[in-house]
């Protein structure tokens, strides 16, 4: 339940950032935080650290054209394949980074790039992950749902507008299928321990 709800909220934060025409470019768990426990906001997840954010539209509302080659920025563990290949970032890359983060929520440290050290290793493993998805995630109870999300992301291009609601619907489907309630406190909530 917590993994799904955090995935939904973090996706919403990314959507909100994209709606004001900014890319985050460093989506990872450390760049999200929960509200204070004393004011009932301990179930709200906030997006943080906009130090690498970049505006992706001109004032005339045209998307800034893709640059041919850029220096890698971000955290290789969560970076998109394109970013690891020194390609310019777009909304797709933020969503792909979000996917890798969410994959860790569900699969833990069973992700195949868990022990990678170099950008080159992360790039190679994430590419091969597409062909060995079921092998890597055979013990993950929501692997089919995550595969739908990954395939959707892989079919996006530089100019694609992510279907945030479609991705959210897949996550809500997991919540419904597993019989979770969205009113339950999140795992770290003090309210959880007193019920």
Automatic annotation (TrEMBL):
Domain of life per record: Eukaryota
SUPFAM superfamilies xref list: Protein kinase-like (PK-like)
Q: Which Pfam families match?
A: Pkinase (PF00069)
**Where does the record place the Protein kinase domain?**
1-172
Single GO MF descriptor: protein kinase activity
Q: Per its record, how is this protein called by name? A: Protein kinase domain-containing protein
- The organism named in the record is Pristionchus entomophagus
């Amino acid at each position: 339940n917590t993994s799904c709800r955090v995935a939904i909220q973090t996706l919403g934060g990314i959507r909100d950032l994209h709606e004001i025409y900014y890319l985050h470019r460093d989506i990872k768990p450390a760049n999200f935080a929960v509200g204070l426990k004393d004011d009932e906001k301990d179930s709200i997840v906030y997006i943080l650290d906009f130090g690498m954010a970049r505006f992706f539209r001109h004032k005339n509302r045209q998307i800034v054209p893709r640059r041919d080659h850029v220096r890698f920025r971000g955290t290789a563990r969560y970076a998109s394949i394109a970013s690891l290949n020194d390609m310019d970032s777009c909304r797709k890359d933020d969503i792909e980074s979000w996917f890798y983060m969410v994959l860790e929520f569900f699969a833990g440290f069973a992700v195949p790039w868990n022990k990678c050290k170099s950008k080159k290793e992360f790039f190679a493993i994430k590419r091969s992950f597409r062909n060995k998805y079921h092998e890597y995630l055979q013990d993950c109870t929501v692997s089919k749902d995550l595969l739908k999300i990954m395939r959707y992301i892989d079919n996006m291009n530089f100019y694609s507008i992510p279907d945030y609601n479609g991705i959210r619907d897949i996550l809500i489907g997991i919540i419904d299928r597993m019989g979770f309630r969205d009113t339950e406190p999140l795992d770290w909530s003090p309210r959880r321990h007193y019920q």
